[in-house]
Design goal:
Blueprint lengths: L2 E6 L3 H11 L4 E7 L3 H9 L8 H6 L5 E4 L6 H10 L3 E4 L7 H14 L3 E3 L7 H12 L5 E9 L18 H16 L4 E9 L9 E8 L4 E7 L9 E5 L2 E5 L6 E6 L10 E3 L2 E3 L10 E6 L8 H10 L9 H20 L3 E2 L3
Parallel strand pairs: 1-2, 1-3, 3-4, 4-5, 6-9
Antiparallel strand pairs: 6-10, 7-8, 7-16, 8-9, 10-11, 11-12, 12-15, 13-14
Helix pairs in contact: 4-5, 5-9, 7-9
């Protein structure tokens, strides 16, 4: 039997959740609740039941799962109330604005004996899955550098995401996804971290950032979000000891260049404007193979399928509490690095 779900917060992501739940094979949308009456009216105009209050949601014995899609600063009280009322909870990202808040939410879940996780839906992005596949396959050797970027040119959103009091900013908005993806690819411990913020279109919160992570064995990761980029850099760039992989745009296949012979018998020098070079001479088919990796098959509905299986004791949660803590600690360290203007020693 399908689990009955209520979405709390009928805004952008709340609307996204309702659309997915209406098509779900494992969950049934029981209704929504929003603190704004006009949002509830909009839901009802679309044939979706709107609860008169949050207390009414919690009092409904049929509701087994609450999905929280509200501004970041009020996640903690709403999540804890739902857990204490005996509901399982999925919370939109970032799950919390501090480790203290997250630990309180996890403690409430454990005390209630209910499942609780953050909605890391971008684990189902096909660009990320393609890069993880290349990394895990070892086909381009040991990976020593990964760069992940998201670039736009419309500035930071004009809603609460641009306001500090609500937990706005691009590190919280997009950074949480890209950090989570990177930590799904690299399993090594993080040793150092350095972050810089941009304030080009918004001076209250970051409208872009550049984050550098150093892992064990000297492995590097670079994560960048920009909102004033009219020419975007590649979505992913990965370097291994035997080759390089790149995704120019998230809608395209991954391109791989794999080295099959380190030296050519005779490299023809390339003439540049200032002279000849062998070091930077392009390779050819004698020493490299070039190919594309097809976009993996992915279904974002698998998130709810997994979570409901976890409720029923049939599977482990896809997004664990330990993973939620680790991503949040990286974000907290990034804020500290920006504040101090220096590299941070990261303690796992």
């Amino acid at each position: 039997m399908k689990k009955k779900v209520v979405v709390v917060g009928y805004g952008g992501m709340g609307g996204w959740h309702t659309e997915k739940l209406l098509k779900s094979d494992v969950a049934e949308l029981k209704g929504v609740y929003d603190i704004k009456p006009e949002r509830n009216q909009l839901a009802e105009s679309r044939g979706i039941y709107a609860y008169p209050s949050f207390e009414a949601v919690l009092a409904d014995p049929e509701v087994e799962l609450v999905t929280v899609a509200i501004p970041n600063d009020v996640h903690r009280p709403v999540v804890i109330q739902a857990l204490e009322a005996g509901k399982n909870v999925i919370c939109e990202k970032p799950v919390a604005l501090s480790s203290e808040d997250l630990d309180a939410m996890i403690a409430a879940a454990e005390k209630a004996g209910k499942k609780f996780a953050v909605h890391q839906n971008r684990r189902f992005d096909v660009d990320f899955l393609a890069m993880k596949k290349i990394h895990d396959s070892g086909e381009i050797g040991e990976i020593f550098n990964i760069e992940s970027r998201i670039h736009g040119s419309r500035g930071i959103p004009s809603d609460w995401r641009g306001q500090k009091e609500f937990g706005g900013g691009m590190l919280y908005d997009w950074g949480v996804h890209l950090i989570d993806q990177m930590l799904q690819i690299y399993t090594e411990k993080i040793e150092k971290l350095y972050c810089r913020f941009e304030n080009l279109t918004n001076f209250e919160v970051d409208d872009g950032f550049k984050l550098e992570l150093t892992f064990e064995k000297g492995k590097k990761a670079y994560i960048e979000v920009g909102t004033l980029n009219f020419i975007a850099m590649p979505r992913f760039y990965m370097q291994g000891m035997k080759g390089t992989a790149m995704i120019t745009d998230w809608r395209e296949n991954a391109k791989v260049v794999k080295c099959k012979a380190w030296h050519e018998s005779d490299v023809v020098p390339v003439e540049t404007a200032a002279g000849l070079t062998k070091t930077m001479a392009p390779r050819d088919s004698i020493t490299i193979d070039e190919y594309e990796v097809e976009r993996p098959v992915s279904d974002v509905h698998d998130y709810y399928r997994n979570f409901i299986d976890a409720i029923d004791g049939k599977a482990e949660q896809l997004v664990t509490h330990a993973q939620m803590r680790r991503v949040l600690k990286v974000m907290e360290a990034a804020f500290k690095s920006v504040e101090l203007g220096q590299v941070i020693d990261f303690v796992e």
